[in-house]
Specification:
By secondary structure, the protein is an all-alpha fold. It has helices spanning 2-7, 12-22, 25-47, 50-67, 77-97, 108-111, 121-124, 128-135, 140-150, 156-163, 167-189. The radius of gyration is 18 Å and the shape is globular.
């Protein structure tokens, strides 16, 4: 019991190493306790139903236990868990709505002129309740990247790590998602 008490104080990355090494479900329970509320909140944001969000949360943690060894500590564990949870939820939404997200090619000529603070004025002026409704009308991938940036306040660097894509791809996806959200918002709520 002494070991378990000391385990509560381990940083996430060390706890993950210990879980992977020992396959100890009691250690995994500590990780679950640290992050279950956060994961539930993210799942609820996608499912919009408490029971479905609970099921998604359980699914995330079941998969997480199996995939924990794939955590390479190139980013913080919490950032990696965000990616894991978002990917699971996006797959859930995509599967349940039978959507196929259109893959758009990146025009690298357009990327050179994009900055982090590119004209967000139209994006930032939207009314919150209408914005939430508009978010439901765009693709799960577009919604995900916007939530990572503007709800979870991840940096471009963190989003690169979460989505495992380059900086220019993050900026282009953010730009396209903002443009799409603004268009949907203006079309449906103005």
């Amino acid at each position: 019991m002494k070991t378990l008490k000391n385990s509560n104080e381990l940083p996430d990355e060390d706890l993950v190493k210990a879980i992977v090494k020992s396959n100890d479900t009691l250690l995994f329970e500590i990780l679950y306790d640290r992050y279950s509320r956060l994961v539930f909140n993210k799942c609820y944001g996608f499912a919009k139903d408490e029971d479905e969000a609970k099921d998604l949360t359980q699914d995330v943690f079941l998969k997480l236990f199996v995939k924990l060894a794939s955590f390479k500590a190139t980013s913080k564990f919490s950032t990696w868990l965000y990616a894991f949870t978002y990917n699971h939820c996006v797959n859930y939404v995509t599967r349940n709505t039978a959507k196929r997200i259109e893959k758009k090619s990146v025009d690298y000529a357009d990327i050179e002129n994009i900055s982090d603070a590119e004209d967000d004025s139209g994006f930032l002026e939207m009314k919150v309740e209408k914005l939430q409704a508009a978010l439901e009308l765009i693709s799960p991938d577009e919604k995900m990247i916007l939530l990572l940036k503007y709800q979870d306040f991840l940096s471009i660097k963190d989003i690169e790590s979460v989505l495992d894509i380059g900086e220019s791809a993050v900026k282009m996806r953010l730009k396209r998602a903002k443009d799409k959200l603004i268009a949907v918002y203006n079309e449906n709520f103005n």
